[in-house]
Amino acid sequence: MNNYPLMEEDARRYVNEIRSIPGVVACALVSCEGVVLCKYSREGSLSSPLFAAMCATVLASAEAACGSVRIQRPSMVTIAASDSAILIVSAEEAALIAAVIDKSADLSTVQRQLSDIAIRIGGVA
Questions:
Q1: Closest CA to 100 of 83, 87, 113
Q2: Does the pTM of the predicted model rise above 0.85?
Q3: In this predicted model, what pLDDT tens digit does every residue of 60-86 receive, in sequence order?
Q4: Quick check: 117 and 97 in contact, CB under 8 A?
Q5: Is residue 86 within 8 Å of residue 66, measured between CB atoms?
Q6: With contact defined as beta carbons under 8 Å apart, do 10 and 80 qualify?
Q7: What is the rounded CA–CA span in Å between residue 56 and residue 74?
Q8: Closest alpha carbon to 76 in 84, 88, 86
């Protein structure tokens, strides 16, 4: 048994739900420590250990930045590039969602859907 609040079958179910969102080309469910709980990538190009660790670091850095100016911790960090975006969504203490989104996707719709999933994941912990 692992030390993470999500069971393997739950993690797999959430990743399948995330990957079904139009525009998601890769995703991972990651522990707050940066360990991959489950992942998906169409091209198989997701370097999961490095990607997971960097996403956990980005979210932790955003939380520290918010704390330094006394605002609430962020629920999502968006990294926008010309050809795609990376969304990192906090699921409270349970995990985080890291998703690579194609530029053709409606980013606000994807953000809303990922936030809804993150709320459900956070309720598991």
A1: 87
A2: yes
A3: 999 999 999 999 999 999 999 999 999
A4: yes
A5: no
A6: no
A7: 13
A8: 88
